[in-house]
Write a structure and sequence with these properties.
Length: 200
């Protein structure tokens, strides 16, 4: 049981961090990295709906107003017209909600949106396979001459490094190291308090 105990690594960071992934099937792979930082992973399914945008705005506004915490939204998705457009619109809408609700604060300080992957630089750097954008996508005309790429094309170890790098860019390394040490000590305390196998 003590091995299942995990200290909340964000509690003392002053930030709430969350990851949104377009590929629901990749969420377990992403959690292998994010769980070590106590960061939740969400599917992008329905993320562009008004309800989802309002829920994210509400969470960010409460985190700021009640706890003085910013919210970081890391996005993992395909490099294509649909993924790029949806993420940009979500960020714009959430920031618009925040500007109305917290007029004295820059909304980009309250909710920080970052596209962690996939970027055109990553596609080129890792020589990832590409394909023309889907003709059925209405946004394709703005991508004329630009190739698309799937997030799944990134090797798992490289994706893990990218996620870790993006997370740690927002966190205090000193606090993170302290919390990991505290976690080990707290696990030892829990282990000592538990009855030995066969007892009780």
């Amino acid at each position: 049981m003590d091995e299942n105990y995990a200290r909340d690594k964000l509690a003392r960071q002053g930030l709430d961090v969350r990851i949104y992934c377009e590929a629901a099937g990749m969420m377990p792979q992403i959690r292998l990295v994010s769980d070590d930082y106590s960061i939740p992973v969400y599917s992008c399914s329905g993320f562009d709906s008004l309800t989802a945008k309002f829920d994210l705005f509400t969470d960010a506004a409460r985190a700021h107003s009640w706890h003085g915490r910013g919210t970081v939204v890391l996005h993992l998705g395909d490099y294509d017209p649909s993924g790029e457009s949806i993420f940009d619109v979500i960020a714009e809408d959430v920031h618009a909600f925040l500007a109305d609700a917290i007029p004295h604060k820059d909304p980009q300080d309250v909710a920080i949106f970052k596209r962690a992957a996939l970027t055109p630089e990553m596609v080129a750097h890792y020589s990832l396979p590409t394909a023309p954008p889907k003709s059925s996508d209405s946004r394709t005309r703005s991508w004329r001459g630009i190739e698309t790429c799937q997030l799944e094309a990134l090797p798992p170890d490289i994706l893990a490094d990218i996620i870790q790098e993006n997370i740690e860019a927002f966190l205090s390394e000193e606090i993170l190291d302290q919390d990991r040490e505290f976690e080990l000590e707290e696990r030892r305390i829990i282990a000592k308090a538990l009855p030995a196998p066969g007892e009780g």
